[in-house]
Design a protein that fits this description.
Layout: H1 3-51, H2 54-61, H3 64-97, H4 103-115, H5 118-129, H6 136-141, H7 150-175, H8 178-186, H9 191-202, H10 204-219, H11 223-228, H12 239-246, H13 251-279
Helix pairs in contact: 1-13, 2-13, 3-7, 3-10, 3-12, 4-7, 5-7, 7-10, 8-9, 10-13, 12-13
């Protein structure tokens, strides 16, 4: 009569042991996958820092090709981000707060540059604003040339970076409680005043995060830039293009520029995380 409880006890212990073993195996498997993924992501980045000495890094920073690329990238990325903020903020606010015919199409077109191959974006811009482009041919009659100039770099960056800000801005505006806006309207505030004094300040954290992401995307743009603006030092050769060019003759300069972009990317991600955490 005592054998049945004993068998049941052993069976319970056996199931508990199997469950513990299964959980242990799953934990070990998940940890192995995590380690492999972290190695896959971090090893190439760490290799950049191991491949060049501090002396060679700082020596490369003094080379004209590096200085020109760094200066041009920061200038054009700042200009393109300012344009995206100026044009993208009203559009994001409009799409977040108003229904109108074709809004879904506008959203789709806004997101299109995210999935569009950079080379396609570059040739599309060239067909639109090149000397024989749909718009460029008319500008050319007035002596205005956009393709293969610094302006082309900015336009390419605006084209590829704008969705990152507009998507984030729209989500931030949608998260703002409309009761605050309604209260401002009941006090006689105009729509512009409500946007500037209520909606935008409340969504400020998300807007800053979107602007930072847009700046980083503009800074790293390569495909559309080289297709539409070319690769001319001091005029259109941004840091990604300079990395591509200097790899063929000056590896230290290419690695130095790559390290700068890695550091900027890390700072961007950290800044976005800090802002997002404070915002929520």
């Amino acid at each position: 009569m005592d054998s049945t409880p004993s068998r049941q006890g052993r069976e319970v212990l056996r199931h508990a042991w199997r469950a513990r073993l299964s959980r242990g195996f799953q934990t070990l498997f998940a940890a192995a996958l995590l380690v492999l993924f972290l190695l896959f992501v971090t090893l190439p980045v760490v290799s950049l820092f191991l491949r060049i000495s501090p002396e060679a890094f700082f020596r490369s920073l003094a080379e004209p090709v590096v200085i020109d690329a760094l200066s041009l990238s920061l200038t054009t990325a700042t200009a393109s981000t300012a344009i995206v903020l100026l044009l993208g903020t009203p559009l994001a606010l409009l799409n977040a707060r108003h229904e109108y015919p074709g809004r879904a199409l506008v959203d789709t077109l806004t997101d299109l540059p995210i999935v569009l191959p950079p080379a396609v974006a570059g040739i599309a811009l060239l067909m639109a604003f090149g000397r024989r482009g749909v718009v460029g041919q008319y500008l050319n009659e007035f002596g205005v040339s956009i393709a293969f100039t610094t302006v082309a770099v900015v336009l390419a960056q605006v084209f590829v970076a704008s969705p990152f800000y507009i998507r984030q801005a729209r989500a931030s505006f949608e998260a703002v409680d409309r009761h605050y806006e309604d209260a401002a309207r009941t006090l006689g505030a105009s729509p512009t005043t409500v946007a500037l004094r209520v909606t935008i300040p409340l969504a400020w954290g998300g807007l800053v995060s979107g602007a930072i992401l847009s700046f980083a995307r503009a800074l790293g743009e390569f495909g559309a830039t080289i297709m539409f603006a070319g690769n001319y030092q001091g005029r259109t050769r941004t840091m990604p293009l300079a990395i591509y060019t200097t790899m063929q003759g000056d590896l230290d300069a290419a690695i130095s520029l790559a390290i700068i972009l890695v550091v900027i990317s890390f700072v961007v991600i950290a800044a976005v995380k800090v802002i997002t955490r404070r915002n929520y």
